[in-house]
Design a protein that fits this description.
Layout: E1 2-10, H1 14-22, E2 33-44, E3 47-56, H2 62-68, E4 74-83, E5 88-95, E6 102-113, E7 116-130, H3 136-193
Antiparallel strand pairs: 1-7, 2-3, 3-4, 4-5, 5-6, 6-7
Pfam family, one: PRELI
InterPro entries: PRELI/MSF1_dom, Slowmo/Ups
Amino acid sequence: MKIWSSEHAFSHPWETVVQAAWRKYPNPHNTSVVGIDVVDRKVDKGILKSHRLLSTEWGLPDWAARLIGKDKIAYGSEYSEVDSTSRSMTLKSRNITFCNYISIDETLIYQPHPEDQNRTLLKQEARVTVKNLALCSYFENLLTNNISKKADKGREAMEWVISKIKAETVDLSQAARQSMDSVMHNVSNLESTV
């Protein structure tokens, strides 16, 4: 087994980052995720619990695909919990496809930064286990390095989604102002005719 971990601080409040985490896919930075289906979602004692199925294109090199077989789409299972009281979001995912050979268990925890409540701390860990193959250690290192590279793209994707959310907020504010101006104009016209 090989363990990879990292921490990253987003310069955005927890609520914004959590909203972006829900809306992360699809995005131009992580094009391998091609679908997300909600299997179950409920609120239990104030905690939003979700189970989602992720469809991805792994893009394995041809030589690796020949070793373990290749499906065009690979699937992963993700469980998440959002606790707005403690301001914590935890995502735990595991691959379903290729699980007889490769197990990738990933955990992401989003919490307000302990030193600055306007920032959000992401703690990320992946446990990679390769079994029933020759060169298990080699494959574990290869996969762990790949996870590390993709983590940077994941953070870029989060920033992209956050900028989209901010643009939508500006657009909604402008639309609300224009609607209010129109209503006030119509009220003013009605008052002048009475």
